Amino acid sequence: MKKHNFSAGPCILPQDVFKEASQAILDFNNSGLSILEISHRSNDFVDVMEEARSLALELLGLEGKGYKALFLQGGASTQFLMTAQNLLSKKAGYINTGTWSSKAIKEAKLFGEVVEVASSKDANFNYIPKGYDIPTDLDYLHLTSNNTIFGTQIKEFPTTNVPLVCDMSSDIFSRQLDFSKFSLIYAGAQKNMGPAGATLVIIKEDILGQIEREIPSMLDYQIHISKGSMFNTPPVFAVYTSMLTLRWVKKMGGIAAVEELNEKKAKLIYSEIDVNPLFQGFAAIEDRSDMNATFKLVDGDLKEAFDSMWNEAGINGLNGHRSVGGYRASIYNALSLDSVAVLVDVMGDLERKA
Ligand code: PMP
């Protein structure tokens, strides 16, 4: 039986995508060949790459606005360094909202001066800093739109003339934003887009080519753009599966429709956390993530009972990250409202039994 998968990533993808991707492993496009055994230079795969790149821009509303989409390898973690290596000549600003921002800051320091413009480290990253002043002499300001571990999400992005770079690994394609506010967006595929192994990078081309350092080819955005995201062998299956998921988002009615469902799911889980006296949310209410709901049991003695109840209900992946503890319900695009209702029922049952 299919589990209710609340895993933080890799995570649930649409069931239809799993089916279509498995079929392509056996026979891709009725070619008599598996997607895993064809050349990445074959017309069939070049079409996949081009569709994935153009769907990404289309869904984000960035077509014809000077942006390019790339599917690279090395995870979002490689983007921590590539962004700085390609964009940081003197000074960059970072908003530190958790583990992933901190890692991005560490890598950027290898390439120039880094200013931590704001941080929520003082409260174990349970909120999003606001009202900070952005120095005007920054090469870029780096933000993390959704903090997967702590369950916080930026609801309003700063307005500034400084180019914005954003790690959207855990909420890309989940909500409508004015994506043209950003000069560079990156996201590991393994949340809302596909299997681990591909990283989507969306770049406004005019921010490139402004630094003097030499960049190794594999780490140079301009080289990847000039080669149509095919400088070397791309992660063929991860790109194909991401393309299928992007088609699914489009078929669902685009980001707007997906967002509507995501809001319903988030409302359902957070109202239970707020109403049920046995549970307590982790993140500041106004900064709660619509993708990762973090919470804990007020009375730790109920852990054993609660854990066995959700396990029995067919729920998977609910344990919180070790730096926060408690529980984390990741409610990415492909998770149904029904799955969230199953979890909420279990939480209610615990209250009735306790
Ligand atoms: N940024 C965020 C917001 C993440 O959630 C993660 C992974 N969970 C990463 C970066 C790191 O991604 P990767 O493992 O693809 O390097």
Automatic annotation (TrEMBL):
<feature type="binding site">
    <location>
        <begin position="232"/>
        <end position="233"/>
    </location>
    <ligand>
        <name>pyridoxal 5'-phosphate</name>
    </ligand>
</feature>
<feature type="binding site">
    <location>
        <position position="190"/>
    </location>
    <ligand>
        <name>pyridoxal 5'-phosphate</name>
    </ligand>
</feature>
<feature type="modified residue" description="N6-(pyridoxal phosphate)lysine">
    <location>
        <position position="191"/>
    </location>
</feature>
<dbReference type="InterPro" id="IPR015424">
    <property type="entry name" value="PyrdxlP-dep_Trfase"/>
</dbReference>
<dbReference type="InterPro" id="IPR022278">
    <property type="entry name" value="Pser_aminoTfrase"/>
</dbReference>
<dbReference type="GO" id="GO:0004648">
    <property type="term" value="F:O-phospho-L-serine:2-oxoglutarate aminotransferase activity"/>
</dbReference>
<keyword id="KW-0963">Cytoplasm</keyword>
<keyword id="KW-0028">Amino-acid biosynthesis</keyword>
<keyword id="KW-0718">Serine biosynthesis</keyword>
<comment type="function">
    <text>Catalyzes the reversible conversion of 3-phosphohydroxypyruvate to phosphoserine and of 3-hydroxy-2-oxo-4-phosphonooxybutanoate to phosphohydroxythreonine.</text>
</comment>
<feature type="binding site">
    <location>
        <position position="41"/>
    </location>
    <ligand>
        <name>L-glutamate</name>
    </ligand>
</feature>
<keyword id="KW-0663">Pyridoxal phosphate</keyword>
<protein>
    <recommendedName>
        <fullName>Phosphoserine aminotransferase</fullName>
        <ecNumber>2.6.1.52</ecNumber>
    </recommendedName>
</protein>
<comment type="subunit">
    <text>Homodimer.</text>
</comment>
<dbReference type="Pfam" id="PF00266">
    <property type="entry name" value="Aminotran_5"/>
</dbReference>
<comment type="pathway">
    <text>Amino-acid biosynthesis; L-serine biosynthesis; L-serine from 3-phospho-D-glycerate: step 2/3.</text>
</comment>
<comment type="similarity">
    <text>Belongs to the class-V pyridoxal-phosphate-dependent aminotransferase family. SerC subfamily.</text>
</comment>
<comment type="pathway">
    <text>Cofactor biosynthesis; pyridoxine 5'-phosphate biosynthesis; pyridoxine 5'-phosphate from D-erythrose 4-phosphate: step 3/5.</text>
</comment>
<dbReference type="InterPro" id="IPR015421">
    <property type="entry name" value="PyrdxlP-dep_Trfase_major"/>
</dbReference>
<dbReference type="InterPro" id="IPR000192">
    <property type="entry name" value="Aminotrans_V_dom"/>
</dbReference>
<feature type="binding site">
    <location>
        <position position="167"/>
    </location>
    <ligand>
        <name>pyridoxal 5'-phosphate</name>
    </ligand>
</feature>
<feature type="domain" description="Aminotransferase class V">
    <location>
        <begin position="5"/>
        <end position="340"/>
    </location>
</feature>
<feature type="binding site">
    <location>
        <position position="100"/>
    </location>
    <ligand>
        <name>pyridoxal 5'-phosphate</name>
    </ligand>
</feature>
<keyword id="KW-0664">Pyridoxine biosynthesis</keyword>
<feature type="binding site">
    <location>
        <begin position="76"/>
        <end position="77"/>
    </location>
    <ligand>
        <name>pyridoxal 5'-phosphate</name>
    </ligand>
</feature>
<keyword id="KW-0032">Aminotransferase</keyword>
<keyword id="KW-0808">Transferase</keyword>
<dbReference type="InterPro" id="IPR015422">
    <property type="entry name" value="PyrdxlP-dep_Trfase_small"/>
</dbReference>
<feature type="binding site">
    <location>
        <position position="148"/>
    </location>
    <ligand>
        <name>pyridoxal 5'-phosphate</name>
    </ligand>
</feature>
